[in-house]
Specification:
By secondary structure, the protein is of the alpha/beta class. The protein has a single domain, classed as Alpha/Beta hydrolase fold, catalytic domain (Rossmann fold), CATH 3.40.50. The strands form two sheets. It has an eight-stranded mixed beta sheet, with helices on both faces. Strands 7-9-8 form a three-stranded antiparallel beta sheet. Helix 5 packs antiparallel against helix 8.
Length: 308
């Protein structure tokens, strides 16, 4: 199936995966060395596979890299229907399972690792907690947004920040004259101030598609991005963490960074809920640490993918 927009123009191959409810998800493949292990990457909410293009290219030096656009993002299409059903947390997890099967078939039996950032990582944990995780050779998750319970010392901070995030995202500016205009707007602001220059450029090109009326429009509509943030806030994912029996490599930002997200501060508690989780936190990094420190984060992944 031909899609009107691909978020990752530098990919060597693009194919699609259709879901049972009618979503179509682009999957991007990068050329790799012969015999390299395979790796599937899932992106964060409001981003797209192409947002991580320069970083994925680093990984492709030693892995057969696949990355996909989640429903509501990048070049994906999605069915009409109640937002609560079309973008439910378990819908995202089911999509990851479906894409994993398609990539595993394409990889032809090569060991396949799962790497996810934020939304992509939460989907992997959701699958694992349901006992439906595919046979991934490794699972590496950056900053999954698993909302803590009231007993957590981070809970009040998480609630306050999530209220602002949900409301602010719903009001996000949707149209732009060009990707460069979005980059200029984001450069030096908040968490984007720490972005690597090439990663910021890739993100702005991957998350805007040409609009029929001229200019560009966000690939992920603000109402959808805002709902996804709310749905993970309201989900019961924390209570399910003890059921995650597979080995999980958690990688997070620095809890001491003043403007950092609550997720970096709750990660030690989160890791303690899972019987086989190991946590690494990157000094000086924030929630978008892959875009801030792409070389360092690539090295962390490659150390954890068997055969890379």
């Amino acid at each position: 199936m031909s899609l009107p927009f691909h978020s990752f123009a530098a990919a060597d191959t693009v194919f699609t995966v259709a879901t049972q409810d009618g979503a179509v998800l682009p999957v991007y493949e990068l050329a790799s060395p012969a015999g390299a292990p395979a790796l599937l990457f899932g992106h964060a909410n409001g981003m797209a596979a192409g947002s991580y293009g320069p970083w994925l290219e680093r990984l492709a030096a030693r892995c057969r890299v696949f990355a996909f656009d989640a429903r509501g993002h990048g070049g994906s299409t999605w069915p009409a229907g109640p937002i609560e059903e079309v973008f439910a947390v378990d819908r995202m997890a089911d999509d990851l399972a479906l894409v994993t099967r398609a990539v595993a078939d394409r990889a032809g039996g090569v060991p396949l690792a799962c790497v996810g950032h934020s939304l992509g990582g939460a989907a992997a944990l959701r699958l694992a907690a349901r006992g439906r995780a595919p046979h991934w050779s490794a699972v590496v998750i950056f900053e999954p947004p698993i909302f803590p319970p009231p007993s957590s010392p981070v809970h009040a901070e998480a609630v306050a920040k999530q209220v602002r995030l949900v409301a602010g995202t719903a009001k996000r500016r949707e149209t732009w004259p060009a990707p460069e205009a979005l980059a200029e707007r984001l450069r030096g602001r908040g968490m984007f101030a720490r972005f690597d220059a090439a990663m910021l450029d890739a993100h702005c090109r991957a998350t805007l598609r040409p609009a029929p009326e001229g200019g560009f429009r966000l690939c992920c509509p603000p109402a959808i991005e805002s709902f996804i943030f709310r749905s993970h806030w309201e989900a019961d994912s924390w209570a399910r963490l003890p059921a995650v029996a597979i080995a999980i490599e958690l990688i997070g930002g620095d809890p001491a960074v003043p403007d950092n997200d609550w997720i970096s501060r709750v990660l030690p508690e989160m890791a303690a809920q899972m019987p086989r989780a190991r946590l690494t936190q990157v000094p000086g990094a924030g929630h978008l640490l892959i875009s801030e420190r792409p070389e360092h984060c690539a090295a962390l992944v490659l150390e954890r993918v068997p055969g890379a």
